[in-house]
Amino acid sequence: MKKKLPVFALVIVLIAAVVLAGEWIRRSHAPLEETDPETRIETNTEPQTALPAAATTLTQTEPVVTETTTAAATAATSAPDAGSRGTYTNRFPLPEIRYTVTDPDNTRGLSTRRIDHSFGVPKNEQPNAISVNGQEELRRMGSKAVIYDADTQEKVLYLTFDCGFENGNTAHILDVLRDKQVPAAFFCTLYHIRQQPQLVARMIEEGHVVGNHSDTHPDFSSISRTRMAKELEAVENELRTNFGYSSTYFRFPEGAYSENALDLVESLGYTPVFWSSAYADWDTSNPKGADYAYRTVTARLHPGAVILLHAVSPDNAAAMADIIDTARQMGYTFRSLTEL
Fold first, then answer.
1. Residue 162 annotated among the catalytic residues of the structure
2. Domain that holds residue 121
C-alpha cells in the first residue's frame, strides 16, 4: 500500500504552483520598463527639437550618426538634482550618438584658411553690405549657414546669446524674456552646460533654443575634421543624456571658420548661425553701462537681423527689457531660429 503525502505537504505544493503561475502571468503581460532608452524615445510625448537629419534613423544609406544606448541611461540617472526621469528637464533621456566623419583626411582639399566672420555695422534699419554679400556668398557655396534672414523684408528679429561661462546675469535675462514672451537662442559650451545645468534646463523648458557652441571653444579652421566632430559630439551627448534634448544649431567659436569646417559641420546635420548685428559686449572688465548697450543694440536693428549678445554682460541684462520694448515700438517682432 502506497504511503500518502501528508496533507500539509500537498498544501505547500499547491501554494507554490499558484505563486509561480501568477508570476508568469504578471511578467508576460507587464509593460516594458522605462529604463529601456529605446522605449523612452517611443513613449516620450514631450516636445523635442528636431534631431539632426542623420540621427533620425539607423537605416540611412550614408550613416553620419550611430546611436548607442550603453551609457545614456546610467549617466542621466546619476545626474545630481535630476528629475524622476533622470534628466534636469524631467524629459526622457535620448540615446547617445557617435558621429562618423566623412572624408576625415580632407582628401578633397577643401580650404582650411581661417575666415573671421564679418558683418559690418547696420544703419538706418538696413543690414550692412558686408552681411548681405556674406549671406549671398554662403548660398553660392551651397551652405545653409545663416547671417541674417535674407528672405524677408518683415521687421523680424532673432535674438541669440553666446554662453561660455556664467557671470550671474543669465537668470535675469531669462526672467525678462519670459515676462516679455520673447524667444531666444543660447549657444552654450560644454563647460557652461555642466556648470549651470539648472539654467540650461530652464532655457529648454521655457521654449528657447539651446545651440551647440563646442566643447573647448577652439578655432575650427585649425583643427582636424575628426576633432571638430568630437567637439560637437560632446555637447550633443551632454544635452541628450542629461536634458533629453537635441540641437541642430551651431555657432563657431569666435566666428572663425573655413570652407573645410563649414562642410564638416553641415555634414553632421547642423545649421551654422552667424550674426548681422553685435557689439563688443564680451569684455567683462570694461562695462559701459545699460544705456550704452541699449543705444547700440537698438541703433543696429534691421529686418531679419540675427542679433548676437553675450550673457556675461551685465549691461545687456540691465538693458534687455528696454531693448525689447523699443524694438516692438519700432514695429519689430521676435522670432525663434526654428522659424528661419
1. yes
2. 115-339
